[in-house]
Write a structure and sequence with these properties.
The complex is a heterodimer. Chain A is of the alpha/beta class. Chain A has helices spanning 15-23, 43-54, 56-62, 76-79, 82-91, 93-96, 114-129, 143-156, 174-180, 196-206, 226-236, 241-257, 264-268; strands spanning 3-5, 26-32, 67-72, 101-108, 133-137, 164-166, 183-187, 211-214. Chain A has one domain (3-274): Metal-dependent hydrolases (TIM Barrel, Alpha-Beta Barrel). Chain B is built from 17 helices and no strands. Chain B has helices at 3-13, 19-33, 38-47, 61-70, 81-91, 99-111, 114-123, 134-141, 146-153, 158-162, 165-177, 194-209, 227-237, 243-255, 259-266, 272-282, 288-295. The chains are: A alpha/beta, B mainly alpha.
């Protein structure tokens, strides 16, 4: 089986993860911009981080035969440092229009403050102006209210529902998101958020339409293999293979390919390393057979 | 900007663009020529990816000859269409010799993604007063991304012309470490030195001590300096060398001006391919192109 993990923070992960992900069938990923786990102190920190998402990290993924796309955005937590967040907004267009940037994200609310509102709306405006998909992070606290509000504001700003992905859903929020016509993504975490068992039941109950499974693996306790593991559990528990394919591959692909930044035909083929690297056949990994006995040269 | 270069770029580019991409190019060209702001210029470079994809350019022989004529050493053989569009946009700037361009150009590097970075490095050789960007080019050589390093180090006439000795030697030896084909480092034939030879021979010692193989391309680095060490290396490797390695050694010794040694080796050589390499070397054919033909077994058109 072939998998797409449309939400994972690879900058915080190791090459072991990349190897295991490729071996488990993960063919493509989306890395949305995230916070660092501690506050940033200056705009240069955003510049270097965004730059790594469209540069080094994409290259690193390619070494394992995994297609790496990203979403650029200012995280809701970071919106609360108002001065810095405004500076970050200024430089955002320098990265958001790059090749392989499939969305503005992950953006949205954390504490649902006015500062978060301002940064969220400014980024929605940019997305609408540039016809981009939006990936919305939903808050840990007051989740349902936060989700409803993030949808309302996005639609009000002119984001079409089919270009809106709401992430970190649960049993309580999924219906509102589907009713709004947006995509409902689910983060499978080992301990918090959704577990694979609950995910199976959601797909059983709601069917596969506009439902997306992701790992959101980051620097915390999380599992970069959540998507393939959940798919296998779905199979074990008798979910229709078509539904598995849609929730773990096809839906995310359809949602984010609206950016025009994903070559779907190419993804359907087995991974090949960038042609510019092919003259060094014996020094780069081939996607079909990720080499796990030698480090990537650099 | 040199008109021959801009004309050559347009001739390469336009027949390969779709109607929509051609429209983007023509509008962007007018906008850039009229003096677009830095932020707009940068957005146009980024948005080029919406109109041209990373498909190989596959230039014809005639086109390659035109490039070579416009700028000595310029070969877009391995460029992709998106890179070409971006380079063409850069060369559309009317203020390329002015400080304002240099600032905008550097700003592009700061915000560039991988594909843009490669295109920017490829553009260097086409720009006037390109010595302004030598620090930036050195940064490209420090990259850990193979694609970025290759964009500046391979098929690019910029480094041989503008790098100081330290930068040049670092580039050649890094390419060797990365197992990149040194025959594609433009100007290596002309820019070998005692120092480069020493570094290469030291690397060979290091590899031997570690029990590792020595890349064939190492032999391309040698010149007539430190000849005793070059001969000693050849003698150590020869008994267990494969025919291909023996051919590389022969060419390397010829590059080190050790023709007597080559003749001596010829006396016991029975392999037809190696014998061929020896004849070529003794006949004065031991340049990068010859090396590529014999060692990589590629035809003329693939080189």
């Amino acid at each position: 089986m072939r998998f797409f993990d449309p939400h994972i923070h690879m900058a915080s992960r190791t090459t072991d993860d990349y190897q295991n992900m490729a071996a488990a069938g993960i063919r493509a990923i989306i890395e949305p911009a995230f916070w660092m786990g501690q506050p940033r102190t200056n705009v240069g920190s955003f510049i270097d981080y965004f730059s790594s998402l469209v540069g080094w990290e994409r290259f690193r993924a390619s070494q394992f035969g995994i297609a790496h796309y990203c979403a650029i955005g200012i995280n809701s937590k970071e919106a609360n440092n108002e001065g810095l967040a405004r500076e970050a907004l200024e430089i955002l267009p320098n990265f958001a229009l790059k090749e392989g940037v499939v969305a503005i994200g992950e953006i949205g609310y954390d504490e649902i403050t006015p500062a978060e509102e301002f940064i969220y709306q400014a980024q929605l405006k940019f997305a609408v102006e540039h016809d981009m998909v939006v990936m919305v992070h939903s808050p840990h606290r007051d989740k349902k209210n936060g989700i409803i509000r993030s949808i309302d504001v996005a639609l009000e700003m002119g984001v079409p529902p089919h270009k809106l992905v709401i992430d970190h859903n649960n049993e309580e929020t999924v219906q509102s998101v589907l009713d709004a016509g947006a995509w409902a993504a689910f983060t499978i975490y080992p301990n918090t958020k959704m577990g694979s068992e609950r995910m199976v039941e959601i797909v059983r109950q709601y069917g596969p339409e506009r439902i997306i499974v992701d790992s959101s693996a980051d620097w915390g306790v999380s599992d970069p293999l959540s998507v393939p593991k959940t798919a296998h559990l779905m199979k074990e528990r008798g979910i229709d293979p078509v539904a598995i394919e849609l929730t773990c591959w096809g839906n995310a692909l359809e949602a984010y390919a609206q950016s025009g930044q994903i070559d779907v035909d190419e993804l359907m083929q087995d991974a090949v390393i960038d042609q510019s690297l092919s003259y060094s056949d014996n020094s780069v990994l081939r996607g079909q057979q990720p080499r796990i006995d030698e480090p990537v040269k650099n | 900007m040199n008109e021959q270069i801009t004309a050559t770029l347009a001739q390469l580019l336009e027949p390969r663009l779709s109607d929509a991409a051609l429209d983007f190019w023509q509008k962007a060209q007018r906008e850039v020529a009229a003096g677009a702001e830095r932020s707009r210029f940068s957005a146009l470079i980024s948005m080029a990816s919406r109109h041209a994809k990373r498909v190989p350019l596959e230039p014809t022989k005639t086109e390659l000859a035109a490039c070579q004529k416009a700028v000595t050493g310029w070969s877009p053989q391995r460029w992709n269409l998106l890179e070409l569009l971006r380079v063409a946009l850069i060369c559309t700037r009317e203020d390329v010799t002015e400080p304002n361009f240099a600032e905008d150009f550097e700003s592009l590097f700061v915000y560039a993604d991988e594909g843009e970075t490669c295109a920017l490095y490829r553009s260097l050789a086409l720009l006037p007063a390109a010595e302004r960007f030598v620090w930036r080019a050195g940064e490209g050589c420090r990259s850990n991304m193979l694609s970025v390093f290759s964009a500046i180090a391979l098929d690019n006439p910029y480094p041989v012309k503008h790098f100081d000795d330290t930068g040049w030697n670092q580039l050649v030896i890094k390419a060797l470490f990365l197992e990149l084909p040194l025959h594609r480092v433009i100007g290596l034939d002309e820019r070998r030195s005692a120092e480069l030879t020493r570094i290469a021979l030291d690397l060979a010692d290091e590899r031997r001590s570690a029990g590792r193989a020595i890349a064939h391309d190492l032999w391309l680095c040698l010149d007539a300096n430190h000849a005793e060490r070059s001969r000693a290396l050849a003698e150590q490797l020869w008994p267990e060398a494969t025919p291909l390695t023996r051919s590389a050694i022969v060419l390397g010794l010829a590059r080190a001006a050790q023709h007597t040694e080559v003749q001596r080796l010829a006396e016991t050589e029975s392999d037809i391919d190696v014998a061929h390499a020896i004849d070529a070397a003794l006949g004065g054919k031991f340049d990068q192109q010859q090396f590529a033909r014999l060692i990589t077994n590629k035809s003329e058109t693939e080189l």
